[in-house]
Amino acid sequence: MTMQPYLLILDDPTSQLEPISAEDFLAVLKKINSELGTTIILTEHRLEESFPLANRVAVMENGNIICDGNTKEVGKLLKKSGNKMFLAMPAPMRIWSAVKSDSECPVTVSDGRKWLVEYAEYNCLKQVPIKKVPAKSGEIAVNVSDVWFKYEKNGTDVVRGLNLTVYKGEFIAIMGGNGAGKTTTLKLLSGLNKAYRGEIKINGRISILPQNPQALFVKNTVREDLQEMLKDIPKEIRNNKIAYVTALCQLENLLDRHPYDLSGGEQQRAGLSKLLMLDTDILLLDEPTKGFDAEFKQMFGGILNNLLERKITIIMVSHDIEFCAEYAQRCAMFFDGNVVTEGIPQDFFSGNSFYTTSANRMARGIISNAITVDDVIFSCTGKSSEKPNNIQIPELIEMQKKEVSEKSKKLPLWRKIIAVVSGFFAFLIFTYATKITDLSKSVNSSGITDSGKKQLKIYVIMIVELFILALSVYRKSEPSLKIQTPREKRCLSKRTITASMLILLLVPLTLYIGIYYIGIRQYYIISLVVLIECMIPFFMIFEGRKPQAHELVITAVLCAIGIAGRAVFFMLPQFKPIAAVVIISGIAFGCETGFLVGAVTMLASNILFSQGPWTPFQMFSMGIIGFIAGILFKKGLIRRTRISMCIFGALSVILIYGGIMNPASALIWGNETLNIKIIMTYYLTGFPMDLIHASATVLFLWFGALPMLEKLDRIKIKYGLID
Questions:
Q1: Cα dihedral 216, 220, 226, 227 in deg (nearest 10)
Q2: The Cα angle at residue 29 between residues 27 and 32, in degrees rounded to 5
Q3: The dihedral formed by the CA atoms of 624, 625, 631 and 637, expressed in degrees to the nearest 10
Q4: pLDDT tens-digit readout, 578-605
Q5: Residue 321 and residue 169: Cα distance in Å, rounded?
Q6: Whole-model pTM?
Q7: Are 293 and 85 in contact (CB under 8 A)?
Q8: CB-based contacts of 450: which residues, under 8 Å, 6+ apart?
């Protein structure tokens, strides 16, 4: 507010505030709106206090606004349409809608209390029965005795002399103000923190759903996170259990999303589903209903009842008073690091003036023991609202199982044998070539000797073996990763075809003119022209779709990674990760980006090391590797698998980079007219270095390609850089 805004946008601001603080916060919002005239757009799941403050309400479902109006109009529309969003309406509205009455719909607790007094004058209210709490099992699950804890040695105690006993199969809800020590207590019970005084005894296996569920996510999709929990059990059992928790937590449409891209409530559900995959005895829940809509809260309550039937102990920290009153068996108030009072929900909330439900404040003094909406409705009508008290789930359910990925056809045995044999011979030749350090027997003053010609034949055989390896492992079937380009999208766009023509025609033409007309030593001019020609496809893209700045930032970062990689390995000739980074760029963002990253990386990194006549050739050769990688991936000829990318990396470095730079070296350093003899000489002497470059590219792609592509996928999804 120090910025004096005209508009204030607040996203679930009270979700982690205890009730009194939440009420104070909303009161401040009311003053800001009424006294300063500031427009406020507020999204909320806790509507008891915030709903009456609004002069306009919009209800959203599946990305669309389904009704819009003042509070009473919206309530009536939701009730009339039978939409389950009505469950989120304030308690007075839900009670009024369940009771036949000609009175005006109440919205606030005060209006609801006036309506209830009027209703009681003409109707007989029934007594609310005391809810039966299951008898304690006698077997203690958690026992805390005189526990003290502080985060710093000289700091203040957060937990002070805590004593708490929880029995097996019991559901206890712990409430209290922010900073009272509730979350710290859960961490002590789970073993994340250790008390410096006192004793904690745990009887059984324990699981915890933290306040921030992102701490539970370790994979790139919700589906993979669920699989990770049961990776050591048979596939059929694992799939059944995943199907079970997916249906239970309503995750069907979220399985292929990254957990960090989910909303707060969806993350809570995904985190809960991970815990339900485990066989646990004690479940610790820290603000589990935060972000849940009213419908899923009922589902969640049924899930907890189901767990209680299995004798699982539940200890929940929550500010959601309505939920605790409805489902908990015992409630405890935390204050100043200790439990100050506890009891069954009806006694606990009926005897509390501040920490109590809207239904209790509305009915206090009129209906005894009424703490929930159902209690008041029962007193008025003799019936309870229909809702699931338990979610009955069989151990194995018959439903369509969504596999993690489409199955690819397995390679036939004969192709596997060819792949192994060709790879083995290619490796033998590689080992042979890297041991050749004396080139005097292969090359003399007149060119290549007979020994050198034999070596060239061996190198050609190695390249052929690599091609055979690539063909033997190539599959036409759809890949296992959904991020592979679908068949229907493998046609090159007009923009890409135009860019290909510009790059493949203009850049070689520029190099030719530079060599024979400008002079190879004028490499600064040639490099600048090549750089401009690299940018032409991007200018075309910008004109077409007006990309945002973050696309340029990502391209610049990829160039920076390549430059930094070259600097890190500067002491190892030709052992550089640049080609790997360029290939990854082409696969992730397309052929134009691949070319630009390759060309700019070589230009910029040569500023650090040494510019020279070789710079334009390096720019073109490395750029064309990224360009071809993007095109082949788009056409489905490169798969996002280690083996496929590594084979392409090795071949591209030997054939493309070496195929351009070796003749370029003859142009730069040779003093005589080029002929096939001179070119072959440079190929022969450069081949061992090309093999080192290829091995480095394979190494970096093998260990770095998939993790880096996963991160780039996250960026593409997050910033909308995909079709």
A1: -130
A2: 115
A3: 150
A4: 999 999 999 988 888 888 899 889 889 8
A5: 21
A6: 0.65
A7: yes
A8: none
